[in-house]
Every structure is written in C-alpha cells, then in structure tokens.
Amino acid sequence: MCTIGWVQPYVWRVLQSWYWHRVLRNLRETIFKKKKVIGLTVMHNPLPISFYHQPTIELAQALLGCLLVKETGEGAASGFIVETEAYMGAGDRAAHSFGNRRTKRTEVMFAEPGRVYIFTMHTHTLLNVVSGAVDLPEAILIRAVEPHEGLDLMKERRMGRKPRDWTNGPGKLTQALGITKSDYGRLFTERPLYIAKGYAPDNILSGPRIGIENTGEARFKPWRFWVEGNPYVSR
Question: pTM of the entire structure?
Fold first, then answer.
C-alpha cells in the first residue's frame, strides 16, 4: 500500500508535466506559423464596419493615412493610403455604376459599404472600397499607398523598379501588396485583406480625378484626394 500511494502522485506529476509541455510546444508552433505566414511581429486590427458608414466624399478623405494590409502565404505587406478617388454612383458618368448599371463586375457596388470592389484595366488590378448604402453603388479607388511593411516582398513583386515606383499608382500597389481578383467581394474588416488604423495626415488636397477624360463634366469634379507632399502620390 505504501508503494502504491507513493507511485500514484508521482505518475500524476509526470502526466501533468507532459501535458503542459505539449501545450506550450503547440503554442510556440502556432505563434511561429502565424509569424511565418503573416510576416509581422505586431498584428494589426481591422477597422470596424462602422468606419465605412459615412458619406463617400468624407470616407475618401478618412481613408487617407489608414493602413492597407494584405496577408499571403509569402508574408504580409502593407502601406499607408495616400491617395483616393471617389466615384458617386448612378449620377457620376465616371463611375462603373453610372445609370445604375448592374453587371457581374459591378454587382458588389450595390452591396453594403466596406466591401472590396476589384476590376481589371489594361491587365492591371485596381482596388476599390465600396461605399454608400445598399443599392447606392458608390466606391472609392485606392490610387496610391506609402510602403510600410513587407518591403522585401514589394521589392520582389515590383522587381527592377525604384522604391518610389512600387506603390505610386493603383495598378502598382495591388501588385506590390499581392492583391488579386480573388479578393473581390471580401469585407475590409476581415483578413487577409483589410484596412487598419494609421495616422492623421497634416493636410489633404483635392482635385480632378485622373484618366476619365471622356466623361463630360464628371472629369472636372474635385473628387481625388491626396496627402500633401507625400512622394508616393501618383501625380
């Protein structure tokens, strides 16, 4: 009896030690895998969906300074948004949804704000934030970002370009961050493509949008916004 009484607590302590050793080992492996996949030592928190529930013109300016993040199997890359363009839906001749044009491509523009709208132009993938209420098809084009994290990934994806040319245009930034057509329809509040808190720009400028010469009076609307003095603004 004395022997059995001594062995049982000993075995119990061994089992406890083994259990916690496994728990800690699994925890370390999980953290390592997350760091390897995410490529960040600090996790960013996506902005809440309420952030996107503001008028499109205001949201286009509020996005400036926010951090755009894309996580991939290669790692994560991010950049501060420094240039946007607002597209005002059915009444805006420059908008894909002008006249409430509803197609397979524009369908997500009629959804709730905070969705990802992606389209391809001249082989370039362009990223937009859906704004406006449901069935009010407005969106905001992300025109440029300032590189922040994942610089090695951006260098590889934009090989042969100078750092300033990595993300100073809507098609450039999607290539640098690894944003693809498969991101269409996602919510910006969820990984792997999301927008997080950044900084408040000192000064925001506005002017006509770019590349919409054949849209009548719409081409004169001052709905392009950018961070004054930022070298990554497209022009």
Answer: 0.82
